[in-house]
Amino acid sequence: MTLVKVNNNGHRSLSQFVDEFFQGFPAKEESFGFPPVNIHETADAYHLELSAPGRSKEDFKLSLDNGQLTIGFEKKDETRTEEYKTIRKEFSFRTFKRSFNLDDRIDTTGIQAKYENGVLKLLLPKKEQVKETAKQIAIQ
């Protein structure tokens, strides 16, 4: 019987191998069809940032239905002419739709949105917390 020692030093784990394999693929925005989002929280609001460079703010659609915020983008088809011929096309603006469930702490009437420098920024203000004041209860 032969004993074989296995030395894993210097070998990559499966997760490292998979990470390295997928590094050469397109960014998540292109491969999954929707842009990445950052969500930040402050004392009075949530701030949602959606990375969508090169788009026009008129092509975004924001809607709120039953506590679900939906952000959509649909690029209108461009008219093509005979004198304008595409030689090479490496990117396109795909249609996407992302939805987020908002909880009861969000003041939906105060939601604001603006698009600047390729980032769609949403302000989701929190409702004011009504704090009950302490009171004395008389014993009868």
Overview of the structural elements:
This protein is mainly β. It is 10% helix and 30% strand. A four-stranded antiparallel beta sheet has the order 1-2-7-6, with no helix packed on it. Strands 3-4-5 form a three-stranded antiparallel beta sheet, with no helix packed on it.
Secondary structure class reads: mainly beta
Question: Could you tell me the strand content as a percent range?
Answer: 25-35%
User: Radius of gyration, Cα only, in angstroms?
Assistant: 25 Å
Q: Mean of the pLDDT scores?
A: 79
What is the total tally of β strands? 7
Poorly predicted runs of 5 or more residues:
1-8, 26-31
Number of helices: 2
Basic shape? rod-shaped
Residues in helices, as a percent range: 10-25%
Write out the strand line-up for the largest beta sheet, numbering strands in chain order: 1-2-7-6
Order of helices and strands: HHEEEEEEE
Cα distance spanning the termini: 91 Å
Q: Largest sheet, described in full?
A: 4 strands, antiparallel
